[in-house]
Amino acid sequence: MSELAALREAVLAFRDARDWRQFHSLRNLIVSLNLEAGELLEFTQWQSDAEIEALPAEPAAREALGEECADILLYLLLIADRAGIDLGAAARQKLVKNAEKYPVEKSYGSRVKYTEL
User: Fold this and answer.
1) pLDDT at residue 64 in the model
2) Quick check: 38 and 68 in contact, CB under 8 A?
3) What are phi and psi of 97, to 5 degrees?
4) Do 101 and 74 have their domain in common?
5) How far apart are the first and last CA of the chain?
6) Selection from 73, 82, 98, 97 nearest residue 3 by Cα
7) Alpha carbon 34 to chain centroid, angstroms
8) Whole-model pTM above 0.85?
9) One domain, residues 61 and 112
10) What is the per-residue pLDDT across 103-116, written as a single tens digit (0 to 9) for each?
11) Are residues 13 and 44 in the same domain?
12) 3-state helix, strand, coil in the chain (%, to 5)
């Protein structure tokens, strides 16, 4: 079992032990994911790029960032489970598509969108 699959099983067991599946409609999970993403975004509010880049070097900030990233990942796993998506396979497939849209020879070192390459 992959690490991602094991994590998915752990989050489902956590959810089921608390009888929370009843609250986990696809819509509610998507809303919750975005709320958690907003909490991650809050770390950048009113800070310069340099201040944001320095966050991981400060232990408390790194821990808080890690917790928000984990919340986002856990909700994403729940969304994928609810929608019947193999998240690992979907991510690999998306990388293939992105490689086609952004060939190295055209996109290396560029921030230009694929439609402009």
Assistant:
1) 95
2) no
3) -60, -45
4) no
5) 39
6) 73
7) 10
8) yes
9) no
10) 999 999 999 998 88
11) yes
12) 80, 0, 20
